[in-house]
């Protein structure tokens, strides 16, 4: 009964109640049951704390979002305070510590490392969370909950490497919890920030396989579990894109499409899951598969696949632009803008991001808009305008709320840097790639671009060292790569009528290797 009350509450990934009335009823029932039930001290502590987590009546957060959020924030604070008291009385019990830490983290989900506006300092609770996690992990290094929360805490921190040993533990041997797809997946939340792209791919393949076993055993294919399974697949594809594994990325992106049918997205689930169905198009853009993009069907069900309709037109616009077919690209650009304005697009969510911000610029497809505009302007020879738009895309990309996978799956800097480099703006392109490598260390795309910049600047020795680095991280690359973005292919509008045999090959850019 305690478990029913606990799991129906908010959590680090979902700040609203799963089922508030079920949670309240369960919490009241377990408190009553506890009076006549023999419990351990730990169990009794957790039962007492749970009583503070819910109330009756609950304000409908959909009908009254402001008042509803205020009530939930108040309840979350009371629950955290109750657990603090229980933790102090437990003489440092590790299990009570876990629930206390989680409750503190849920007060500021995904914002633990954001400086306070007035002081510019990190919230003291964050420092306390790190201290308690590290203190209890020393005593209980195999505690799944502590490992889980430590990775969530440190992934946003300035030092994600500190959590590498915990990430290692989750994947060691068969895994700390072999049957938990989500815990096998969690290591990649650190791996991506330290450049371990291959392990992020492998860990999420293991997560997918563990989840598939559970699905076969239980038949559970709906609800929250479906969302978590799609998250692991989405993450797998994102990691494979960074690692240059086209076949792997596209294969698992197609698996997402296979599972997220119109039926699976019915009943309001499209709001939360439809954005996953766009992943294949992002893979095809990443690897320059322009002709394949033009063969992709445009969804006919605009109510279920409103977002994918928009992204399909965006992808087609990018493909036509890369092929030098400006008029066709501009036609798709207009269709993309129209589709973006569909109110259903604005209703779509992908983790911490909205698909479209209709009044501002902080939405996933708000990044796409200047990117496509910049690509088209580039093919028209309007280079100044092109670079202005691409710089705006970078700004919007950086402004997206923290998320993993990042809201925009292919860093906008790759297109800006590659096209600056193609026009021999070596210094600015170099700066763009260096900045990208700070965010995404050891990524082969920016290493390739930086190597070419140094060669263009005449820094042969540095370029050769970068070539060694590029070669080391591109061992699994299964396409020919000669630039940081396949949009840098030296195709202009004039050339597009009769490309050379070499440049016709799908997915190939034709910058010379240094």
Automatic annotation (TrEMBL):
> Domain of life here?
Eukaryota
The UniProt entry, under InterPro entries, shows: TPR-like_helical_dom_sf
Entries under SUPFAM superfamilies matching the protein: TPR-like
Q: Which Gene3D superfamilies match?
A: Tetratricopeptide repeat domain
Instruction: Specify the protein name.
Output: Tetratricopeptide repeat protein 38
Organism, by scientific name, is Amorphochlora amoebiformis
